[in-house]
Amino acid sequence: MKPDQEQGQHKWIALIAMSLGVFMALLDVTVVNVALPTMAEDFNTTFGDLQWVLNAYTIVFASVLLIVSKLGDMYGRKRMFMISMVVFVIASAVNGMATSLPVLVVGRAFQAIGGAGLNSLSMALVASNFDGPSRGTGMGILGSVIGLSTASGPLVGGYLVETFGWPSIFYINVPIGIIAFYLAFKYVKETPSYGKGQKIDFLGMILSGGALFTFVYGLIEKEHNFDWAWTDPRVMSWLVAGMVLLAAFIFVELRKPNPMMNLKLFKHANLVGGIFVAFALGAGIYAINAYLTTMMQNYMGYSAFSTGLHQLVMSIWALILGPITGRLGDRYSKRWLIAGFLGLGVVAYLSLAFMLSPNMTFMEIVPGLVLLGISNAMVNPLVNSVGLEGIEPAETGMASGILNVFRQFGVTVGIVMLGLTQAHNYESYLNGHWNGLGLTGKLSTELHDVFTKVSAFGGHEVAFSSRMSALPQAKQIQDMVMAAFHNGMVATFLTAGAIVLVGAIAAAILLNDSKEN
């Protein structure tokens, strides 16, 4: 085999290593959700305490994305990718063996450090290991893996938990990680150490990590306590702290000779446009997965694994279309492809909103899920590619980190905003129809408090419980809860559609088709 042919084959094997890394990192953001009930029994704890198994990963993952991106630029992205893989695999093994909740939470935090490196550096490594037309194809495949990993959590997690128990969702990372580590070691080309001789900007790293940590923590506090006002000190203090730290970060970086983040990156129109699109993807498309899963499991009666199977009509498109998106982006305008397929996402949400009914069936939502899957499958790879156009090789790691931060931050913001929308419309319907049930006195007050407290997530379980079925008004209550959930989900779909529409408009206005931007 000629050297050129051998090198051409090596880069595709390298892509497998990078794809495995990013798949594991992003899958572990969502895969734990389906394991929480089993964990609650094994650890004899509450769901409230178990939320930290999710939160520890989400918060740390977002907080260190930019830091590992910069370290990759300075000391070699392949080296930092492999270190991240080792951290991720070891932490996964510790999580699988955890016998107490604190150990699992700490393990998840360390796992997130590795996961952030795998996620951020994989995109930069594709950009540096591929060139010419193959770069678009490589970015397209990696983008499809990103979309697929985010959407396939219920399917993978449901199968593993139901078949092997919850530790398996962590143990599975060990053999996959070892394979990916070997492939990366053998086939991924190292990038130059662009920061050789420079001092690490520790202050910039602390301020950037602190700003992201406080922002995300504040949003998670709001997510878990929808009844708290935004001005509640338990929420507002974290958000204000995030803004103060962000302002301090900008102030420091503008005065550093070798800053952690070169703020001149934001002069690139495509990076700025990519940020808006990445945020819209996170807030408008990825965040909806939590609510679709609730709808299918709690209101349509599917198991965790069955939910994942049914969601394949949405997630499978990332696998099918990912390899061709890069080629389309090389031939046609990425700007209008992104704007157009985000527009398709808006159509998908309109379909979901208007086809949904209180007694929802799966076939009613299939057209919307298919369109939503196609939208995500086409846009996600393209935004990764267009966002890095015109960026100097020394800065591609940080640029990819910025895109990933806004995608992940968008997911957190989206979950909160969509959750507030659902909760408000769910409760409004209950309040507007409660008196029509004919309940009086203490029973009416207590039941109303119960349905308000459990919110849309637990309303179905309470309404169809054996104790509730003994009431003469049981059928009315059940119909009302189904209608209230429907009312909330329609509003949620429309809100998500509005977020995606803003992303489409931003793409059309901010992106351009010139690599000199």
TrEMBL record:
Residues 14-515 form the Major facilitator superfamily (MFS) profile domain. Its main location: membrane. Pfam families: MFS_1. It is found in: Cell membrane. It is a multi-pass membrane protein. GO terms for cellular component: plasma membrane. Keywords: Cell membrane, Membrane, Transmembrane, Transmembrane helix, Transport. This is Major facilitator superfamily permease.
